[in-house]
Amino acid sequence: MTSLPSAGSAPHLFCFGLGYSAATLAERLLQEGWRVSGTCRSESKRQALAGRGIRAMIFDRDRPLPAAEQALATVTDLLSSVPPDAFGDPVLDHHGTDIAAMAGMRWIGYLSTTGVYGDTGGAAVDESAPVNPSSERGHRRVVSEQAWLSLHRAHGLPVHIFRLAGIYGPGRSTLDQVLSGSARRIDRPGHVFSRIHVVDIATILRASMARPEPGTLYNVCDDEPAEPRAVVEYACRLLHREPPPLMPFEQAAPLMSPMAQSFWRDNRRVVNRRVKQALDIRLAFPNYRAGLDALAREYFDVAADRP
Fold first, then answer.
1. So what's the pLDDT on residue 103?
2. Domain extent for 61
3. Residue 278 located in a structural domain
4. How many domains does the chain have?
5. How confident is the model at residue 302 (pLDDT cuts 50, 70, 90)?
6. What letter would DSSP give residue 102?
7. In a domain, 31, yes or no
8. Which pTM value belongs to this model?
9. What pLDDT band is residue 242 in, cutting at 50, 70 and 90?
10. Does any domain span residue 27?
11. Where residue 263 falls among pLDDT bands split at 50, 70, 90?
C-alpha cells in the first residue's frame, strides 16, 4: 500500500492529463512550493512541461504508466482530467488498483462536465438535479463519475467530482475565434450556455483541496448563462471588429463538427451556488464580460509590445 511522505515534505499533486485546466492549477501550486507531476500524451508536451518544473510521463489508453507505484509513491493529492473513451476510463482501467492502494490521500479530484445533465429546455440545474445526458459522450461521463465515486465508497478515498461548463481563457476564447475569422454569430433565441474561466477553475480546485468534502459534486461555472451570439457580439465590440453576419441555427448546424452540434443539443442554466457557499470563493470572472475584458486588456498589451 502506497503511503504518504513524511511530515514537513512538500505536498505533491499528480495530474492524470496535464491539459489546459490542470496545467493552470499546476502553475499556481508550483508558486506555492508544491511538487507537481503527471501525464501527457506526447514527447514534445513532456519536454515543454519539464521546462516549467513539472515532471511528466507519457500516458494514454495504449500506454499505461510503466512504474505506477513509484510514480505515485509521494503523491498527497491527485487530479484526473482524462476523459473516458469508448472502452471506459483509461486512468481507472489501468491504474484504479494503484489509486485504491494510496492510503492517507488528502484529496482526489475528477474533472467531468455539466453535459451530464443533458437538455433541460433552459431550466436551471444544481448538483441535486438528476443526470440525463443526451449524447454518448455524456453517458460515458456519468459512468466515469460513478467509477471514481466508487473509490470513495469502497476504499474511503477523498474523491470530489467537478462538473465543468464551457472552458475559456488565454488563447482559447471568443476573442481568438473573432481574430481568426472562425467566430459564428448564431441566431437561436433563448438557447444559453454556461461558461467558466480557466483561472476560476484553478481557484475552485485549490479551494476544494484546502477544505476537502469527500464524495461531493460541484458545478463549476460562472454566474451568467448567456446566448452565444451575445458573447460573439461583445468580443467584436472589444476588438473593434464588425460582428459576423447573423446566421439561423438551421443554416449553421450542418457546418458544425459533431462535437459542436452536441453542445447545441442541450439548453440549460447551470447553478454554481454550492462552490461559492461551500468553498467560500469569489469568482474572478463572474460573467463572460468580465472574462473577455481581462483577456482583451492582455491582448492589447501584447500587441502594443510588438514591433
1. 82
2. 12-167+197-224+269-284
3. yes
4. 1
5. low
6. B
7. yes
8. 0.94
9. very high
10. yes
11. confident
